[in-house]
Fold each of these.
Amino acid sequence: MCIRDSIYAISVCGVSHTAVFGATFLNRSIGVFTSVGWGVASDRMGASTCYTAVCYLMLVCIVLCATLHEEWQYWVLTVLLAITGTGGFSLGRSLLASLCPKEKASEIFGYAAFAGQVSGFVGPLLFSLTAQITGAPRWGFVVPFVALGLGILLLRTIDFEAKPTNDKVGSKSAQYGAIGAVGDEEHPIVCASEDESAEQADPFDPF
């Protein structure tokens, strides 16, 4: 729950200031428990399954926002946003960490943070433009609905069970067939295997 959500609820949907204040407090209180609940659920069902469920719940929240007319609907929406908010934040970063190699983790998480900042600007901008063109603020929710729907389709194409590998190290091992390799690409220093070491042993050594 943020300031723009409260402004939309009060100015467009007619929700009272008291309800907005109480719903904000409820949202923060529920979030403490739902964050722990999503952690337990991800251990049992898998982070990808839980994250997909969060995305579908977010679609429900968007529909509720667009069709919000009664104050009780706002309270229901508050609870759902508390559930999806904590789950989306924690599970999304857990899945991202499972996909990226360790040596590129800081770089990839930096890109993710940058993408979050860009979406935080572009999303409200597209929402405002859509509401301005159609003349109805409720039509602005078409933008996040379509964006999230495309995100769910992309999410279904990702194999979260695949382990990230270091392609550079893997290609060198396949090329030189060694136990280990040291040096640069032009002058590699290859460690011989045990069989090769036995063949190159000193012939004058009785042992």
Amino acid sequence: GAPASSPKARAATLHAGELPAPGPGYTGPRLEPVDAPITLEWAMSLVWHFQRNPHVPLPARYLCRLIDEAERILDAREDAEGAVHKITLQGGTSVNIVGDTHGQLQDVLWIFYKLGVPSPANRYLFNGDVCDRGTLACEIWALLFSFMAVWPESMHVQRGNHEDRLLNMDMHCGGFYDEVLSKYGRHSGTGALVYEKFARIFARLPLA
């Protein structure tokens, strides 16, 4: 296993509340206390924030809260369904299948605008390759995880070949690892910690 002080080991045990709350200069959505329920109102406030301020990342404290919630939901889904996850559609329910978004946040915001945000009646399947190439994959993940937290059945994400450590660290065809470090810290340890939180999610996603 990883040394106890490594980012990988810390990612397995760290509670989002251990990370500092953002200072007064941050004007985006806050989630305090950090264990407060993630509501539709909060998820929509994140949509509006990224529409207006796409280059103002969600603070690590709140992003890790979303990642931890997604990990809990994915673990529960696997316990209930096994490795193959099912999307059950009933009358009046639709599913929107979204291909490779590759860090293009504006594409995801446009899709939500045209087709509606995720809900029990308007479900989404993101078919992998959320990461790499573009520079706003963290923001896409934050949106997907926030709606997953509100309505788990409304959001399904599969693992593409870009939800992978080796590709994420390849500057020629990847870049997600560098994106995370550039937003959350190259030298403080927080950036590597956030990436390892993402890596735990990737390991839980069903393969596309």
Amino acid sequence: PKQWYQRRVAITAGIEECDNPQSVTILIKGPNKHTITQIKDAVRDGLRAVKNAVEDQMVVPGAGAFEIAVYQALQEYKNEVRGKQRLGVQAFADAMLIIPKCLAQNSGHDAQECLVKMLQEHTGLDKCVGLDLVTGEAMYPAEAGIWDNYCVKKQLINSCTVISSNLLIVDEVMRAGMSSLKG
């Protein structure tokens, strides 16, 4: 039998035990338009994250753990590279630390201290290490159930590479233009 329910968590109501549910309605209330917009954005982001996880059928550890793991892998790979390319690998590795730094800074912790803790904890382990935003200590996000979408991280890597390449092209064009003005 269908049962109507109402819970006072955020004001949710609905029908349970539907035979073939096809849609859901979310009622959002708030004290002002700004709050309602913020709640709508949060719900949309949450639903999009679930959709991405279901479509990708995979997730990666969150809390900055993915970026720390990529940084460590690039540091190892850098030893195999020679010449100027080595500087590019180092720059890309350093750029990967921006997200863990932002997480630390936005949670009120010293970014450098948190990075050192995470890098020390990650060294020599097969586990991904992230940042506990409450304590500022290194933690294992997979054990805490903190995950990021695979497609988001894949897009992050692709976008960073494309943007970096475009900036280098613009830099070369600017240099070529300057040298033609001089000569």
